[in-house]
Structure formats: structure tokens, C-alpha cells
Amino acid sequence: IERFVFIAEWYDPNASLLRRYELLFYPGDGSVEMNYFYLMIRLILINFLKKNFFCSLYCCFGSRHDVRIIYQYTGRQTLALIKPDAISKAGEIIEIINKAGFTITKLKMMMLSRKEALDFHVDHQSRPFYNELIQFITTGPVIAMEILRDDAICEWKRLLGPANSGVARTDASGSIRALFGTDGIRNAAHGPDSFASAAREMELFFPSSGGCGPANTAKFTNCTCCIVKPHAVSEGLLGKILMAIRDAGFEISAMQMFNMDRVNVEEFYEVYKGVVTEYHDMVTEMYSGPCVAMEIQQNDATKTFREFCGPADPEIARHLRPGTLRAIFGKTKIQNAVHCTDLPEDGLLELINYLSSSDV
């Protein structure tokens, strides 16, 4: 019998736990089996199966709402790792990933321990440059991503180019390693060679057990919080926003993709309830898809970054502050690209909350 196997997750607000299930879909009759539940929901799933039945698709199974399909065992995803030497070029690399038709479904800036580096490079332990690999990958932050598209492993390797950056500049001049790498070790980014390697590496950075994987890089000092809103993430604007923040002189010291549910968003926007007429639309936008939280550092970060974000209404921003993030990337007062913190104490609380796990 043909079937598709997924790992599904559901946030249980009563227990404050992210529960995971094995979900099986049978295309023959459109039925779904999830643990001991056997539910007939052909009309819900059949339209999504071939194109959209993957990360961040929210469905309703019986009484359980907001069950999110997070993983499909089809080889349509792979790991993309931005190495320490190319962290400053993360915006450009993410822009290349988006333009190549990939969807970023997980993202986290991390710092690998020596043990994690040994686990990551286990396939290279017999190579003469093994110790140099371990030393290099632990010198600074990395950005790990799960990226999704057809033939993901091969397409990502093609974008990367040859492992040696010098060879890449000769043989694949437009590749990521040609553009941003230095040599065979400091070569900007990594991608697994096979489905088995991709599965093993994804498990290291984004454990299916629900663990956090390698530690995030948050400093929680002299910082403020920026959240790239769902519409901007889905429109592929993340790379451009990262470049704009960097070029304005801010440091992005931590970053993580996450999802919010309606209850969390309502709490997040509680101060606006009954105050602004757009409150309900603001809530709906914020839980409509993945967000990306960033720790922003600079002197007096809360004030200076809020000024850089610009007025909440992009139309006003384009007239008064045309160089601000909302003026450039915002569409409406609801879809205005980014959230920024108003008060220093709120920024720290938001960062602790949204950088502590992959989902809220």
C-alpha cells in the first residue's frame, strides 16, 4: 500500500509542551493515521499532497487544531550550513537560496562545541585536514538551515560549487564558494552529499526528539529584538533584510526561525488590544507562518534600531523615512516587514522567549 510518512507536531497549550506524532497518509483512500487515530480527511489533504504537504502546513485532526506537518521522508529537503567565515555574508547566501527556488523551513544561528564538531565531521576523520576542519568550524557561529525543494541535495550542491573555492572560481564562477569562500576549508558553506548524510546532519542540528541541538549564540546584553514577520519570510525578503541591517552598522548576534500560535500572539500584542483597530489583523498575520527572531546589537540598540525600522505604517515611512526597513520592505500597516522592541526590558524578555526554542 502506498503511503507517505511524516513527523507531525502539535503545541499542547494545557501542558505547554510540543508533542510529536508519526503521521501516515494513504493517497489511495485519502485517509490519515496518526498514532491510534484513523481519520478520513481526503478533501483537506488531497489538494496539498504533491506541492505543499510539508513544513508549516497547519491542519485540523479531529479535536486537535494547529497540527503542523514538519518533515516528509522524500529527499525534498537538505541541510544548508553557512560557515564561520561567511556569517557576514549570510544575507547574500540566503538571497541566493531563495532565488534558486528553495524554501527555508528551519533556521538557527549556533555555536558548535568540539564534540558537536567531531560528530558533524565524522566522515572526514581519516583525512589529513581533519583537525583543521574541527578547529575552523568551532571558531565562530554557524547558521544551520533546512531548505526544501525538488532534488534538494543535488540542487544545493550545484549552488555551492566545488569544495575548493579556488577551483570553484575557475569552474563555477557564480557559485557560493566561488563568491564567498577562500580555500578548501574556509569555503563559506556546506551541504551533505547524500540522503543519509542529510538525515544524519539534520538530526544533529535540528533533533527530531524535540531537543534544541547546538547552543544558540545569543548574548542578551546591549541588545534589542527584531522579528521578521511571516509575510516577509514567505516573500523571500529575509536575505535582503539581513543585508540592510548589516549595512546600517548593526550586528546580528543571534537568529532563529520559529512559529507562534494564536494564544501566544494575542499575549504578545496584548497592549494593542482595544487600542488599535488593526489588532485582530495584526494577530492573524503574526501566526500565519514562520517568523525569524534576531538579537540586534549596537550602542543604545533599542532606540537606534527602532529608528532604523521606521514608522509602523510603510506609506508614512516611505514619505518621512524612505531608507528605513518598513519603507523598503513593508506593504501595509499590518504587513510592515518587521517588529521591533519599544522598551529595553521588553527586548530582553522577547529574546529569551523566542531564541530559547524553535517554536513557541
Model description:
With 360 residues, the chain is an alpha+beta fold. It has 3 domains: 4-72, no CATH class; 77-214, Alpha-Beta Plaits; 218-354, 2-Layer Sandwich (Alpha-Beta Plaits), CATH 3.30.70. The protein contains 17 helices and 15 strands. The chain has helices at residues 42-45, 49-52, 90-99, 114-120, 130-137, 152-160, 165-171, 176-180, 195-205, 230-234, 238-247, 262-268, 279-286, 301-309, 314-320, 325-329, 344-354, and strands at residues 4-12, 17-26, 31-34, 37-40, 57-61, 64-72, 77-82, 103-111, 142-148, 189-190, 215-216, 223-228, 251-258, 291-297, 338-340. The strands form 3 sheets. It has a 6-stranded antiparallel sheet with strand order 4-3-2-1-6-5, with no helix packed on it. A 5-stranded antiparallel sheet has the order 10-7-9-8-11, with helices on both faces. Strands 13-14-12-15 form a 4-stranded antiparallel sheet. Helix 3 runs antiparallel to helix 11 (238-247). The longest helix has 11 residues, at 195-205. The model is unreliable at 36-73 (pLDDT under 50).
